Amino acid sequence: MSFLVKYYGRVPVDEFSARSLLYLQDKIVNTPNERNGKPLTRKTVNRYVGLIKQAFKFGAKFGWAEPSTHYALQVVDQLRKGHTTAPDNPDVKPVESDVFEKTLDKLPKRVADMARVQRNSTMRPQDVCNIRACDIERTGDVWLYRPPNHKTAYLGEVLTKYIGTAAQEILTTYLIEKEDTPEAYLFQPKDTVRDRNIERRCNRKTLNKKGEVQPSHKNRKKMNPKRTPGEKYSTESYNKAIGSACKKAGVPHWTANQIRHLAATEIRKEYGLEAAQIACGHKRASTTETYAEIDHGKGIEVARRFG
Fold first, then answer.
1. What sign results for the dihedral spanned by CA atoms 275, 280, 284, 287?
2. 253-292: pLDDT as tens digits
3. Which region, left, alpha or beta, applies to residue 156 given φ > 0 means left and ψ of -120 to 50 means alpha?
4. Domain 109-216+228-248 belongs to what topology?
């Protein structure tokens, strides 16, 4: 909204026209990102223009702007690919399987298990961060996980993720650990910190002649630290842990979203596009196609036989 305020802050609301919005759209396209100096992407520009339209819709709803003002802005189209100088972000590719495995070796065990569960169930990063025992139905051989908060929850949709044997084996340990608190998140940063501290104490070799820990090496944990480990991982802390592990493993940087792309690609290759669509929970197959890469090997085999 800063663009609207900067260029039209003193203009009466109902004098803001479609032409004004087109001018503003052009200004946004030619304004570099403040953080990195790079041009704003096409999707970002479209999102900003959409928010400005939404502001006028909100104003018309409460009588702060004429409905005709809001309707007039709808004629301004979104920027189309290839018809603007605004760049597009490169498509997010799935993380390579060997890179994924090398990174897991450098991750804390609980975070590595999060990544494994995400791969085995095609969850979004936020879904694996939010997983709780009370949200998992375990009556059948395949468990059903229905997160109460997810990407399309605001539309009233129910998301169901299918958890098979491999993911069940990983989750069972955490379900037993949290059996007295079914509403607690299964993967918690404070548990990771506790595991790390226990490992450090077990590996400590600096004992004195009496076999005791040196006074300078005793537990010096602060009684009231300013920052304490949280009750759940956020997508940011999850990705931060992955990024740190990538550096330690000496592999290209990747993010948790690419695990979902990897899983979708593997399912599509083995069972087809429709199966990948169901596993990912997409309404349209076209959405799945952007996640799951085409198996070019099948195309090559067809060409060998029929070409």
1. negative
2. 999 999 988 888 888 887 777 777 777 777 776 666 555 5
3. left
4. Topoisomerase I; Chain A, domain 3 (3.90.15)
